[in-house]
Design goal:
4-stranded antiparallel beta sheet; Translation Initiation Factor IF3; 6-stranded antiparallel beta sheet; about 250 residues; elongated; about 35% strand; Alpha-Beta Plaits
């Protein structure tokens, strides 16, 4: 009899604990509420171009390969400074040194040492883009130049679009509450994540800045330059979604 009672007591505590866990895990309140998604989209003009160049050399002589990459890195930095780019707008990675091998007659044979470094440059005056691109191509520092348009004060724009998304959420919730003869109370939770159902296991901020980027080979850029193709930065779109639970009153 004692064992039987002990079993039921254990089961009762287990059930109570399960209810408590489920209650705590629920993203929604027990009282009347409305759960809405607010969204917003803003168009902004990019004011900065990011150049990304990979400087790479393969040579059997490691010291020679390193010296070549260092020399071209200095050439790139010097060329950038001629366009008024400050030191804090130039970021260089440490040297990446990797031996390269190939197999001959079943034996691994060293074919050279791959030495590389990436350099990122922020150009804040887009009017200088054509001249700077020409200078980088003519200098033959790197075979590939990646360019990405962006905005310098991304945080301020993100805050602006988030606030707009919150305004949209409140307006939606107010309309829904009014349609049911209710009035909107205080927000119970605010999140950038859609945490309903299984989606809560794949949480990602719902903010995105979309713009143009390009990866161009040096010869292709030479043709573009020769054709006199104009450069127009266009606009970028930034979006945000928020998920808000409002209590009803």
């Amino acid at each position: 009899m004692k064992i039987h009672n002990r079993f039921w007591l254990s089961a009762l505590f287990s059930a109570a604990a399960l209810v408590a866990v489920n209650t705590m895990a629920s993203p929604l309140p027990q009282q009347p509420h409305v759960y809405v998604e607010g969204s917003a989209e803003l168009e902004v003009e990019p004011d900065m171009m990011v150049f990304s160049l990979s400087i790479q050399t393969v040579d059997m002589d490691l010291a020679k390969a390193k010296a070549d990459v260092d020399a071209r890195s200095r050439l790139l930095i010097d060329a950038s400074k001629k366009f008024g780019i400050k030191a804090n707008d130039i970021a260089t990675t440490a040297l990446n040194i990797r031996p390269e091998y190939e197999y001959k007659d079943g034996q691994r044979v060293l074919t050279g040492n791959n030495v590389s470094r990436q350099v990122d440059i922020n150009l804040r005056d887009l009017k200088k883009y054509p001249e700077m691109m020409k200078a980088l191509v003519d200098a033959k520092i790197s075979e590939t130049i990646n360019t990405t348009l962006t905005v310098s004060d991304k945080k301020a724009i993100e805050e602006k679009v988030q606030n707009a998304a919150m305004d949209d959420a409140k307006a939606r919730a107010g309309r829904l509450a009014k349609s049911q003869g209710q009035s909107l109370g205080a927000p119970w939770s605010i999140s950038e994540f859609n945490n309903r159902g299984n989606e809560r296991w794949e949480l990602r901020p719902n903010r995105e800045l979309m713009g143009n980027s390009a990866v161009m080979k040096a010869d292709a850029m030479s043709l573009q330059r020769a054709s006199g193709e104009p450069f127009e930065p266009g606009v970028m779109k930034i979006t945000a979604q928020v998920y808000v639970v409002y209590l009803l009153k």
